[in-house]
Amino acid sequence: MNWERELMSWGNGWWSSPLLDQVIPWFTHLGSVVAVILFIVLSSILSKSRKLFYRLLLLYGIQSAILYGLKYLVGRQRPVLMEISSRISAGPGEILDPSFPSGHTLYAFMMATLLTFWFPRYKMVFFIMACLIGWTRIYLGLHYPTDVIAGGILGYGVTRLILCRLDLSLTKT
Question: How does DSSP assign 110-124, residue by residue?
Fold first, then answer.
């Protein structure tokens, strides 16, 4: 998508900053698989519910199957712009799998949707954080904007569907 590359190059010109170049590679990992596993374990420990643990693992498995099924079905290469790729070396990062959709964004929206279900009062905070995690993927040049949008829609949508079918409340059952 040429318009996406142009948008990313334009954005790189005005949102680039040495401070962000140091912070963003670390912040982006709040949407990583490691963060999701920690989220599942901590949610289960705090709720003292083994049933919640298994249901969160099921949700994670469903999300991952959809994510990687689409990634390898579509097979879209990552953008990794030459001007931006130097930012990746400033922190941990992977660019091994296909680009579409963004897994970090999907998982961030999955966690934001669950947290909103549990703590509706802080809905805006959770979704702003998820959006920021998605933006970091574009900032780092690892995803096109449509990858991030699709990841957000899937993370939110599939989680909402699962919430309609499974009891994912924090109370011990």
Answer: HHHHHHHHH-GGGHH
Around Cβ 5, how many Cβ atoms within 10 Å?
13
Cis peptide preceding 101, ω within 30 of 0: yes
Asked if residue 134 lies in contact with residue 151, where contact means CB atoms within 8 angstroms, the answer is yes
- Looking from the CA of 39 toward its CB, the CA atoms found within 13 Å total 22
**How many CB atoms lie under 10 A from the CB of residue 43?**
19
> What span, in angstroms and rounded, lies between the C-alpha atoms of 159 and 3?
30
Using one digit for the tens of pLDDT, what is the confidence trace for 60-83? 999 999 999 999 999 888 887 544
Q: For the chain, give every domain's residue range.
A: 35-165
Interior angle at CA 38, CA 33 and CA 43, nearest 5? 125
**Are the CB atoms for 103 and 67 separated by under 8 Å?**
yes
Q: What is the pTM of this model?
A: 0.87
Convert the pLDDT of each residue in 77-129 to its tens digit.
888 754 444 455 444 445 678 889 999 999 999 999 999 999 999 999 999 99
Total number of residues shown for the chain: 173
